[in-house]
């Protein structure tokens, strides 16, 4: 009975070797040229790899919240040359207009021949920065605050609300380096360090590494900054909503505005959680509220436990948001929305905000991948 499995295993091994050899010959694309922004920059690279990782290897970092898995749709680039039709893996992230304009996901574009692309100029200032883990502490049972102190004489400039990509080295069964996007939770004036809030996600490459493997004093590299989630300079009242690690960009924004002595616009921050154990930074935010008259902090629990002894707002955060927008906020002032969280939460909050007078184009959000 043991002969058949052995024969099958041997045949499988031979086939695997044959496929590898054939792939080496058939898919040997040689050198290809990447022409960027009408030839302003040209790269000669070995073909066969995705455009995203190839650009990264040359120090050009296109944002990618999922690290190149094709699950976030963030790594879009405009391709000026003909590289064939969109792949099925790209289409879910493309609007009809983007398809018409040949916008592609760089993680799904395999370099088989010379290619012409267009990139935003700001990407050329994105850098990989090295540092050490200065702090790693639990703020809830499933969220850790990660502090990275950058290397000596290294600083970073970013807008409050933007994000960096953490570089995760191989560990355990993870054989290749990976990158994952996390919003910066510290304020921009602290240029020598960066803080992040990392929520543990089952089987998450980055979150498992941070929660189970990473230790203080270890080296850590980050890439960025990226993102267009930041405060618009207007006089509109701000309605901010977050939950869980979505606290990160909102916290950065609030600390930055307080430090800059912004006093001319009302700021409402609604933070939703299930029970008391999901809340954090309460003392910091309550103190900020006491010192900053234009700032209002409203935490709410959707499923408070008896032991929580919760006396604050209860219910879904959308319900609390709707109630305050109708009864507490100034109806005569213009309004803007700032959201960070899951796609479902953001979608629900957008509907509430639009129903309460905020135009869709004035609602800005950072959606989890």
Q: Can you tag this structure with a few keywords?
A:
Elongation Factor Tu (Ef-tu), domain 3; alpha/beta; Rossmann fold; Ubiquitin-like (UB roll); 25% helix; disordered N terminus; single chain; 369 residues; six-stranded parallel sheet; six-stranded antiparallel sheet; 8 helices; 3 domains
The best one-word shape is globular
> N-to-C terminal Cα separation, in Å?
48 Å
Strand content: 25-35%
Q: Please state the structural category.
A: alpha/beta
CATH topology term of the largest domain? Rossmann fold
Give the H and E element order: HEEHEHEEEEEEEHEEHEHEEHEHE
Output the radius of gyration: 24 Å
Helix % is 10-25%
Second rung of CATH, namely the architecture of the largest domain: 3-Layer(aba) Sandwich
- Per CATH, the class of the largest domain reads Alpha Beta
The description of the largest β-sheet is: 6 strands, antiparallel
Describe this structure in words.
It is a single chain. This protein starts with a helix and ends with a strand. Helix 7 (317-327) runs parallel beside helix 8 (343-355). It has three domains: 31-123, Ubiquitin-like (UB roll), CATH 3.10.20.30; 127-226, Translation factors (Elongation Factor Tu (Ef-tu), domain 3), CATH 2.40.30; 237-367, Nucleotide-binding domain of ferredoxin-NADP reductase (FNR) module (Rossmann fold), CATH 3.40.50. The longest helix is centred in the N-terminal third of the chain and has 24 residues, at 3-26. The chain has helices spanning 3-26, 51-57, 96-100, 205-213, 247-259, 282-291, 317-327, 343-355, and strands at residues 31-36, 41-46, 76-79, 103-105, 115-118, 127-138, 143-150, 163-168, 178-183, 193-199, 219-226, 237-243, 267-273, 295-301, 313-314, 335-341, 363-367. The radius of gyration is 24 Å and the shape is globular. By secondary structure, the protein is an alpha/beta fold. Helix content is 25%, strand content 28%. Mean pLDDT is 91; it is low at 1-10. The strands form three sheets. The protein has a six-stranded antiparallel sheet. A six-stranded parallel sheet has the order 15-14-13-12-16-17, sandwiched between helices.
């Amino acid at each position: 009975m043991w002969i058949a499995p052995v024969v099958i295993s041997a045949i499988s091994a031979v086939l695997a070797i044959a496929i590898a050899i054939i792939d080496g010959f058939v898919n040997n694309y040689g050198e290809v040229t990447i022409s960027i922004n009408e030839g302003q920059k040209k790269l000669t690279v070995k073909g066969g790899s995705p455009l995203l990782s190839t650009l990264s290897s040359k120090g050009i970092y296109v944002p990618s919240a999922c690290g190149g898995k094709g699950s976030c749709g963030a790594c879009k680039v405009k391709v000026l040359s003909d590289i064939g039709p969109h792949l099925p893996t790209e289409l879910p992230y493309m609007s009809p207009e983007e398809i018409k304009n040949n916008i592609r996901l760089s993680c799904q574009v395999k370099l088989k021949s010379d290619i012409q692309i267009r990139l935003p100029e700001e990407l050329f200032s994105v850098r990989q920065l090295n540092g050490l883990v200065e702090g790693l502490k639990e703020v809830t049972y499933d969220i850790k605050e990660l502090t990275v102190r950058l290397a000596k004489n290294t600083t970073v400039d970013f807008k409050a609300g933007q994000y960096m990509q953490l570089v995760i080295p191989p560990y355990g069964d993870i054989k290749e380096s990976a990158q994952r996007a996390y919003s910066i939770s510290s304020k921009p004036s602290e240029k020598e360090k960066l803080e992040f809030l990392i929520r543990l996600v089952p089987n998450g490459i980055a979150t498992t590494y941070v929660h189970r493997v990473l230790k203080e004093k270890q080296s850590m590299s980050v890439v960025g900054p990226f993102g267009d989630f930041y405060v618009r300079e207007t006089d509109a009242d701000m309605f901010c909503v977050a939950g869980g690690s979505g606290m990160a960009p909102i916290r950065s924004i609030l600390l930055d505005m307080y430090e800059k002595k912004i006093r001319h616009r009302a700021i409402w921050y609604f933070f939703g959680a299930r029970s008391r154990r999901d809340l954090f930074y309460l003392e910091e935010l309550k103190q900020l509220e006491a010192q900053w008259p234009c700032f209002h902090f409203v935490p709410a629990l959707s499923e408070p436990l008896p032991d929580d002894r919760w006396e604050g707002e209860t219910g879904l955060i959308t319900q609390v948001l709707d109630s305050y927008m109708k009864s507490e906020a100034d109806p005569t002032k213009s309004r803007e929305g700032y959201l960070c969280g899951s796609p479902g939460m953001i979608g629900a909050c957008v509907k509430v905000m639009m129903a309460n007078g905020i135009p869709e184009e004035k609602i800005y959000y950072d959606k989890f991948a």
